[in-house]
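Input/output pair, single chain:
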Amino acid sequence: MLAKRIIPCLDIRDGSTVKGINFGNLRNVGDPVALGAKYAAEGADELVYLDISASSEGRQTFTELVSRIAARIDIPFTVGGGIASVDDAGRLLEAGADKITVNSAAVANPSLIDAIAAKYGAQFIVAAIDARMIDGRWVVTTHGGSRPTDRELFSWAAEVADRGAGEILFTSMDHDGTKNGYPCDVFARLAGLPVPIIASGGAGTIRHIADVLTIGHADAALAASIFHYGEILIPTLKQELNKQGINIRL
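Output:
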């Protein structure tokens, strides 16, 4: 059995790390390079950097920042935000990113996933999906959660897997930043897909993370607030998960 992964997420706006609640009320929490290096030293398995304003502002992810991260960090990291073409993906991979995520552009043009996977391989592409519950249905959103679409979470997740995404990063907008726990039933359903699932949105306690990795059958737990504000330290988290019999890299 593959070890479960712990992945701090750093949302980037204007070159700084920010964090909010339900995709709003953003606060600056530090330098993305220094924070990433700190998490790597503490035992994070991977990092995710998301340029959260790139798609809504119509600009490309800041490649120079990716280069600086790659120069400082010795664990895999994924970069997303504003990736709208195979060339965009290639530029970030060449700058040092280990994987890229696509979200808004892939919803608008699903064949983008096929094209990136065909050129670089499925292992380099993560499909990020942001969704919220609307009238009893998980509605996929784009542009940093600001635009609801006509796509439904589970059918879209199955499609991106079929098109060649190597992993799926699902964020529940309803749970994001609330620290009230992940929607484990949703992740358990997504776990039926043939690709690893990264759980995002709602981590507040070690129990929340343990639950999404066991009850939710997620392959990785992504969190932000609890790490940024020092509420849970990565070494402590991993030791506790290990004590609970969860396969984790110590």
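The chain is about 35% helix and 30% strand. The mean pLDDT is 91.
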